[in-house]
Amino acid sequence: MEKLNQGLLLTREFNAPRKLVFQVWTDPAHFGKWWGPQGFSLEIAKMDVRPGGEFFGCQKSPDGNHVMWGKFVYREVNEPEKLVFVQSFSDEQGNTIRAPFNPNWPLEILNILTLEEKDNKTTLTLQGGPLNASDEEQAAFDEMAPMVKQGFGGTFDQLADYLASQL
């Protein structure tokens, strides 16, 4: 049986309807325009949003010197309110690999994204944590949690700007 270790809980309100927020998370025409660290570009090689489907893509730093491949394997897709996916770093062939920045980073992170709409605004809640992590992997995740939270803050800022451009 798999074990979800302790993780992060992030909440953010967006000035957009839930249907649109869900769409920009699941449509490759939108997702590549806002996902990832600020300044990085995202090339999507594959995006099949259904249970068992995968996202597979490559993020490049502004100078082009840093390239990171990653993937999501979708477990649950409940439009327009919930996405559950396992996120991993990968090589160019889609094989799960260790993160380039920390040899103890967990191989898999389970993310549970929920969207609730009220008064044409959407509250996004993202709960994420290591899956089946060793003590060393959990410690690496815990140590980097503030940076991960800050990174998602930047990504969510980009999402807010992108949503505003779509209204």
Automatic annotation (TrEMBL):
**Xref: InterPro entries:** ASHA1/2-like_C, START-like_dom_sf
Q: Which Pfam families match?
A: AHSA1
Record-linked Gene3D superfamilies: 3.30.530.20
Task: Please report the stretch or stretches of sequence annotated as the Activator of Hsp90 ATPase homologue 1/2-like C-terminal domain.
Answer: 15-163
Reading the lineage from the top rank, the first entry is Bacteria
Q: Which SUPFAM superfamilies match?
A: Bet v1-like
Protein family: Belongs to the AHA1 family.
Q: What is this protein called?
A: SRPBCC domain-containing protein
